[in-house]
Amino acid sequence: MKISKETVRHVANLARLGLTDKEVGKFSGQLSAVFEYMEILEEVDTSNVAETSQVTGLENVKEKDEVLSWTFDGSVAGAGVRCRPAVALREDLLGASELPVESNQILVKAAIKKQ
Amino acid sequence: MASLNELTVRKVADGLRAKKFSSEEVTKACLERVEARNKDVNAFVLVDSKEALACARGIDKEGFAKSDSVLKGVPVGLKDIFNTKGVRTTCCSPGLRDYVPPYDATVVERLRASGMVMVGKTNMDEFACGASTEHSCFGVTKNPRNLSKVAGGSSGGSAAAVADNMCIYALGTDTGGSIRQPASFCGTYGLKVTYGRVSRSGVTAMASSWDTIGPFARSVEDIALILREIAGHDRRDMTTPDVEVPDYTKVLGKGVKGLKIGLPKEYFGEGVEKETREIVMAAVGRLEREGAKVVEVSLPMTKYAVAVYYISMPAELSANLERYDGIRFGKKASKEASGKIKDLVDQYFVVRGEAFGDEIKRRIMIGTYVLSAGYIDAYYKKAMKVRTKIIEDFARAFKKVDVLIGPVSPFPAFGVGEKVNDLLAMYTADALTIPANAAGLPSLACPCGVSTGGLPIGLQIIAPQFKEGLCLQVGERV
User: Fold this and answer.
1) What is the ipTM of this complex?
2) What is the pTM of this model?
3) Domain B1-297+404-478 part of CATH 2.115.10.20
4) Helix, strand or coil for residue B458?
């Protein structure tokens, strides 16, 4: 199956992936070859075959309803360098952003244009 | 006597307890090896010698009690996909080049509790996507046995670090062969566990229904020791069932007498190099002489596994990588590009266009395409059905035999640059490792010989789910 440049642009748009014109041309050729290879699956009769989305048979896994201690239990690890908090702090999580932070929120560009 | 950095986990643990040497001395030996070799091999992308030595000294000071973990004070290398609190974790992607995680992955937390001494973070294909560690923003990892060859991938750094004695053991991830193939290329042991045997919490997701975590080591006994420490249920990963974690060392020394070994004929057919086939068969012959019963079996769906994988995996990957938008973490838009950004959607396009390398862009597009309206039935759902048939293949085989054995890779390590521009050649290199991931089965890669070109050849032992012990029992005799 041939993947045209137009299709590459369409898919990149769906994936919010910025591509240069050069990349569009390159990926069109490469992805065509990959999808041609995938046609091999047409050989397999899959009528009445169920889809597999997970392999260990787990269903509706829920957590135990129990109260947890939110601080690291030092007795597990002993003392010294290994004793670190197991739960990430709010400041740490916000600190991971390279964007400006104001009142515990990360500032981004507007999603909706001003009227 | 071997240098300290060449010892196994068992020997280091015994030596520490007998006070023959200290953790600091072992760590120093590993760091010296890194210093001497990493510029050529490029196994590590981050090493903090001061922190590692300080950690080792702290552990030496505590001493080693009988109840302490066997991994206490044993230097380890971690693939740069495991979140390590306060230590840069990049997935070898330009978009995460400066990312410092605010928390530890569950396995890292467990290793820390055991008394981990981390030599550093190891190289990998960007977001674990590749079979050669050539798609890394830190450059290629070379095969320590022959620097003109690749180390394999995506956990190439971990495999090379263990094979080249830069650390005593390492952890990696295996989604389609990313532990076993580099282990086999570099000549070490590497275990892909049953899906869900080891918690994936805090390990960057690639393809969530395929991803597994496992160890690299220089002996089967070491693999057994490490697995015991990292396996088991984790409340932060809902795909880890509450299946008992046995003492895997108990199977050691049992031998293979009476065990039934199946040789899938598709694993020895077309595309597999003659020498690889012969070396694996010679190892099988040794097992037969020790009393194992060897029979041929058939896994007819084998030839479809690569196509199934390259539909299902990119679909899951593209969904997992949606979170990389440069907002909560990761690189924001570059200075040059940020002028062009008018709104939030622009920001996504710019950040994601800059954050990912070619291979990731390709896979995001494959995944987005197979999930898009009009194609989801023809590709995604079709692949999920053929995956069911792959699982049925294995179920039928395991009614007749205890384990399956085949080559890990159809050929030994290939040249750096040899396949990097030929997508299909790179993708099909994983043809023999992908099926075990499709069915969530454990598989142990064991070195079993050396090619005439001096490159290691490895075989894999595949067992039913949660029977890692069987892989180890047979692997010990290879």
Assistant:
1) 0.91
2) 0.95
3) no
4) strand
